[in-house]
Design brief:
alpha/beta; 6 helices
Length: 205
């Protein structure tokens, strides 16, 4: 795990500064709903990939843990954060941890990692551990989730139903686990590429 110190006075950074050339931009869904969580609080970027959301949240003043199983991506993210810290307006903290999020034992239990004020998940679905997310969300904490849904096979990958949400699945999931649904959408999107997605923003009561 790598840790970096935090400065003060958060501001909202330009989302374009967090995206790698040739990689997807910061999600519009994440951008739209991030103001529901307060900078300075603990944020988890689950299956962070290139880390565009983790970097953007850290630049905005959040205390971010970015987790993924790709060590190389996490190393690159750490280097990008170090470079980003040259801007005194980037006021958060970013740590990374290489974890197997599909191991039999959930590696992010509350006993090990505590609770999170914000959890962001994009373009990732592993149903066997999905039920663990509400258990690590703090009271009043916000879950922002966006990934592919049934119908996406018409536009490309993923096409395996194991990685595609059923209609209304995230909405049902949130309500079943006692979360207040703040916003929900599903269906065809054109950007950043044609796809069928499902998106939710929910708060732990």
């Amino acid at each position: 795990m790598r840790e970096h110190a935090r400065a003060e006075e958060p501001r909202k950074p330009n989302p374009a500064s967090a995206a790698l050339p040739g990689s997807p931009p910061v999600s519009h869904w994440v951008q739209a709903h991030l103001p529901l969580a307060l900078p300075g609080h603990r944020a988890l970027d689950l299956a962070c990939g290139s880390g565009r959301h983790a970097l953007w949240m850290a630049q905005a003043g959040f205390d971010v843990l970015a987790v993924d199983r790709n060590e190389e991506s996490l190393t690159q993210l750490t280097a990008r954060w170090a470079q980003s810290q040259r801007d005194p307006a980037h006021t958060g903290r970013l740590r990374t941890e290489c974890l197997d999020l599909e191991a039999d034992v959930w590696p992010l239990s509350a006993d090990r990692c505590g609770h999170w004020d914000l959890i962001v998940v994009t373009n990732y679905l592993y149903r066997p551990h999905l039920h663990n997310l509400p258990a690590i969300l703090a009271r009043g904490g916000v879950l922002i989730y966006e990934t592919f849904a049934i119908g996406n096979a018409d536009f490309g990958r993923p096409s395996n139903p194991d990685f595609l949400l059923e209609s209304g699945e995230l909405d049902d999931f949130a309500r079943r686990h006692g979360l207040e649904v703040l916003d929900f959408a599903q269906g065809y999107v054109e950007h950043p590429k044609p796809a069928v997605t499902q998106r939710i923003c929910a708060r732990m009561r």
